[in-house]
Amino acid sequence: MKTVILAGGFGTRISEESRFKPKPMIEVGGMPVLWHIMKEYTRYGYREFIICAGYKQEVIKKWFADYFIYNSDITFDFSKGNQMTIHNSYTEDWKVTIVDTGLNTMTGGRIKRVKPYIGNETFMMTYGDGVADIDIGKLVETHRKHGKLATLTAVQPEGRFGVMDMEGDQIKSFREKSQTDVNWINGGYMVLEPEVLDYIPGDETSFEREPLERLAQEGQLMSYRHKGFWRCMDTLQDKQRLEELWNSGHAPWKTWE
Fold this sequence. Notes:
single chain, alpha/beta, Spore Coat Polysaccharide Biosynthesis Protein SpsA, Chain A, two-stranded antiparallel ribbon, 8 helices, 28% strand
């Protein structure tokens, strides 16, 4: 199953670093947040990724182009016509497709633009700025059991996000968070059937608005409730907190060896 990762936004709320690189390329522990997310999926056997790039998309392409070189032992023999010999490679067995989905395209439009790379099959999708210790195997199992078109991971973070009203595991509607809410929000980490792409009219569509709301109204949107760790790297403070967790040696999202 392929995993689509949204990595094309401007990251305006963390502009201290996103002036120079896309938000998913901001580093935690010396590696981009995007890498951390991909390692999470790899832990459960998912190794094929489609990156929806946009803002400073060349930074993402260059990083992956150099990744193999930076993570290998290499001999450069200039006496024999500039030969390069790879001795050991420490890279993952990933297949990564990076697609320029446009500078100002909305989230739904970005997903729609990578339809040719998804094909007519079930796929996963998440945002390129959120890490978690989600059991992706159980997430996929949950999606397959209920037979609906879409499953998103519901989480309960602090603070500043819009919430979802649910009946059991079925998502009924979305609204702004109130002072009294202790509710579930969209944490990404979705499993989607290819028919979901038909709910996206075009580039101007925010996936979190019309498509998800319509799926909810039609009873086609289910949740996977995650009560463990989840954090979105939305601000510099969020980044610093993730750095602290990583440097402590006990980063909750690091479920791989």
